[in-house]
Design goal:
The chain is mainly alpha-helical. α1 packs antiparallel against α2.
């Protein structure tokens, strides 16, 4: 019985470890999005300082191409909306993952206690 419990505990621990790796990856992706958000906010602020007499260039591959100010502002605004949406999606995902992780942690704790009780009973019989 203790051996089956130990295998189950080991399998659940591996699942928990994989879950923690997923949480870590999601947090890393969210941090990357936060950096992109900051960068794009700076670009938006810079574009807001310009007027129609200024010339704006967009880097496409190795070439700088002239771009309209309104078009550049619209592109940056859409990019900001997209990044904010992705950040919200990751926040919801992380919240869900943390909830599942906590439930899994409780399951591991109860399995560990059960294993220790079974191990203690087996030791008492010897």
């Amino acid at each position: 019985m203790a051996e089956a419990l130990q295998k189950k505990l080991k399998a659940e621990l591996e699942k928990y470890t994989a879950m923690q790796k997923d949480v870590s990856k999601s947090m890393s992706a969210r941090q990357k999005l936060e950096t992109q958000l900051t960068d794009n906010n700076i670009v938006k602020e810079e574009l807001d300082l310009l007027d129609s007499t200024n010339t704006i260039y967009k880097l496409i591959g190795p070439v700088l191409v002239k771009q309209d100010l309104d078009e550049a502002k619209a592109t940056v605004t859409k990019r900001l909306e997209y990044i904010n949406g992705e950040i919200q999606r990751y926040e919801a995902l992380l919240k869900d993952m943390e909830k599942k992780s906590e439930q899994h942690r409780e399951l591991l704790s109860s399995l560990q206690q059960e294993y220790q009780r079974a191990h203690g009973v087996a030791a008492g019989k010897v």
